[in-house]
Input
Amino acid sequence: MSSTELGFTPATELARLIRTKALSPVELTRAVLERIERVNPVVNAFCTLTADAALAAARAAERAVTSGASLGPLHGVPYSIKDLNFTKGVRTMGGSFIFEHRVPDADAAFIPRLRQAGGIFVGKTTSPEFGWKALGDSPLTGITRNPWNPGMTTGGSSAGAAAAVAAGLGPLHQGSDGAGSIRIPSSFCGIYGLKPSYGRVPMWPVSNNDYSSHNGPMTRTVADAALMLSIMAGPDDLDRTSLDGAPADYVGKLGRDLKGLRVAYSPDLGGLRVDPEVAALVRAGVRAFEELGCVVEEVKPRFADTHEMIRVMWSAHEAGNRAPFLKQWRERMDPGLVACIEDGLRVSLVDYIQMRDRKLAYWDSVRPLFETHALLLTPSVSVPAFEVGRLNPAHFPQHAWDWFPWASFSYPFNFTGQPAATVPAGFTASGMPVGLQIVGRRFDDLTVLQASAAFETARPWAERRPPNLP
Output
């Protein structure tokens, strides 16, 4: 197969080819690195490559295959890590000049699991500065561009990961999601993205944003995401907030008959603004669940308002975490992040505690729906991808830093910690992808994966590729 075909081949198939000696790990790694070298100048998905180390690991993986050694589930398969996550001996810049030369001496908690499963680490993918916004530009690493149209944003903050998947730069890419940062770019780039339950994948260092950040897989196929999650998930003493107990058999139990499953559908979560094309494509996607035998009910949720909540808490967290950098680095930081920090500095401790009380009580407005329905379907994002260089679409309210109005379907489920995925639901008339969000009950990642797989079978997407890439 050519480097292009190998770059777009699912991890499940690549692992099979390697186990049966039909594909060399060295051949695969070279092909993925060659494709990254060719395509990355267009999309800017990778900010750091580890080519020499990846090829050395691939040669070791090849020796293991030829010697008959025991092989892990990812043996010889390339993967990437988002630049927000620590990687031992490999720079972790966080998209910021402040940490341009930082080289951690330890890995994020889940990374050794990917390595021990036989995966080949090929590099770090881009993020906006500290992952503060759901867009794909950074003052340090520049603009990450949507493979479907390089004039459009990828979304973020897992911008490079989404672009890498869509552009066929290998099969497995890790993202993180504090307010939609897996689901938003996955929706904009036409790929599968899963924000697992909070704590399902351990985090270290634990993010200081009040238990809202999740690590998860970003892939072309649901089966690849199930495979990647099965390796990343599980408790770790490095993260006292990680969930106890082994993960479910996400791979073995992926196929499921959904007949009779009670599913709620909300086109607007009770009043959120949605572009008409997005609404129509999502509604058409919901029909697939009816065809699969689900009992689908359109609902009008009575969830508490979250926009004021996230504006206060997001800016306060950014101020608490980043304000010390302003004195030295202000002129080299993202101006929107600076504005967000400055707003956060005006939040009093009393205001923050009162808002946190509202956040803790928010679950009480969400819980009743999931007592009667196994899943909730919504748009993933209010809009398709819009022009690079903008914080908000032209037809939405403008603000110095507040990007949340067009991303309001995602962050409520960071507050609740529920699993939520986005599946490609179709394309706009201009050829940009649109995602449908599948939200599950607390801790029920398996049902979200099963529903995603059933939808993928009913409305396949993985064979469609962005045009005009090198």
About this structure: The first helix runs from residue 3 to 8. The chain is about 35% helix and 15% strand. The domain at 3-458 is CATH 3.90.1300.10 (Amidase signature (AS) enzymes). The mean pLDDT is 97.
